[in-house]
Write a structure and sequence with these properties.
The protein is mainly alpha-helical. It has 6 helices and no strands. 79% of the residues lie in helices and 0% in strands. It starts with a helix and ends in a 17-residue tail after the last helix.
């Protein structure tokens, strides 16, 4: 296996660990709103998150030396810098938009806005890392945030949006851990989440 592919597998594993956690957070929120404190459902969500996380951790450990070797290349440094800027921008946007929605009397739209912002944040990362699956993840979250509030009787407060966001992130984690994630969208594969 080439060192580029190994570094990419390590990077994808890091992303999958984050997706396992954030997907579980959306799913737990869905469970609490849909069923209340349902120990069996929350336990299943926890077990799913742990399983994905442990599989990702195993893949990372198998490939971390290649990732470390690539870490000082100009491309890797540039991708990490963009990753940091995009993530900082995402968290700032989430905070500002949530605050504005709360202060203007529209807190029911906060979850929709968060889904949309998280979806948008995947788009520049897809280009930076030449990882086409980030386009799919981002597009799916954006589409979900735009459609579900108007397709459900209870609008933005319908818990189906929370379920959808969690499942999208878990699907992204599973894809990141599969051989499908290794096909670049063009050029040399990148090794970041």
């Amino acid at each position: 296996m080439s060192s580029v592919i190994s570094a990419e597998k390590a990077g994808r594993a890091i992303g999958a660990m984050f997706f396992a956690f954030f997907g579980a957070a959306w799913l737990a929120w869905w469970c609490l709103e849909r069923f209340g404190v349902a120990p069996e459902i929350l336990a299943a969500i926890g077990a799913g998150a742990i399983a994905i996380f442990l599989r990702a951790l195993w893949q990372f450990r198998q490939n971390r030396a290649a990732l470390a070797a690539e870490a000082e290349t100009p491309e890797a440094k540039s991708a990490r810098k963009l990753f940091s800027l995009v993530n900082a921008g995402q968290w700032i946007a989430v905070f500002v938009v949530a605050l504005v929605l709360a202060l203007t009397g529209h807190p029911e739209w906060i979850r929709v806005a968060i889904m949309f912002i998280v979806g948008v944040h995947f788009l520049p990362l897809a280009a930076a890392f030449r990882y086409r699956w980030h386009y799919a993840t981002g597009g799916a979250l954006i589409l979900l945030s735009v459609v579900y509030p108007f397709a459900t009787a209870t609008g933005p407060l319908n818990p189906v949006g929370l379920l959808g966001a969690g499942l999208i992130l878990w699907a992204a984690a599973l894809i990141a851990l599969s051989p499908f994630s290794l096909a670049p969208a063009g050029g040399t594969p990148k090794s970041a989440p």
